[in-house]
Amino acid sequence: MATVILFHSICGLRALERDAAARLRALGHDVITPDLYEGQVAGSMDDGFALKDEIGWRILCERAEVAVASQPASAVLGGFSFGAAIASHLWAKRPKTSGVLLLHSIVEIPDNARDGVPVQLHLADPDIYEPAEDVAAWRAVADRSPIALEAFTYPGVGHLYADASLPDYDDEAASLTWGRVERFLGGL
């Protein structure tokens, strides 16, 4: 089974991440969910962006690096929305990762991405935070990169459609996502 490092959304460590971790642990995976906001939780996306800005990107990345320092170099890196950006930051520093799980966000693909590293993307279509032209440009870069991308889009859902606590939640899309994530991790 895989070791999975799963980073929280812009709103902080909440039920979304805890429930995802519990789901994956029930399948036998070792899952950690670092709390980069150190207990603070935002009540809305706007409040989450303000909290992120208050703490600062550099500090958040440092906290993430400390949180994963004792984890295997092969650990799967994943995150929800903003958490995917944190996973991407670490991916450049942890090229031996056995997989990358991008939930609700596209990210920069590091120059040192290992040939064939499995990457799974789950994205709303359209997504208010990931404009269609950005997604198309990202997919073109991903197609030229050495990664093994598996991308799924979910038409007509909101950005954080897998978060049951938000109006964006879509049960059908969330169920499809988790089934695909389970298959992805089971294949590593």
TrEMBL record:
Keyword Secreted: no
Keyword Hydrolase in record: yes
Sample GO molecular function, one term: hydrolase activity
Dienelactone hydrolase domain location: 3-186
Residue ranges crossing the lipid bilayer per the database entry: none
Keywords tagged on the record: Hydrolase
Coiled coil: none
Protein name (Swiss-Prot/TrEMBL): Dienelactone hydrolase
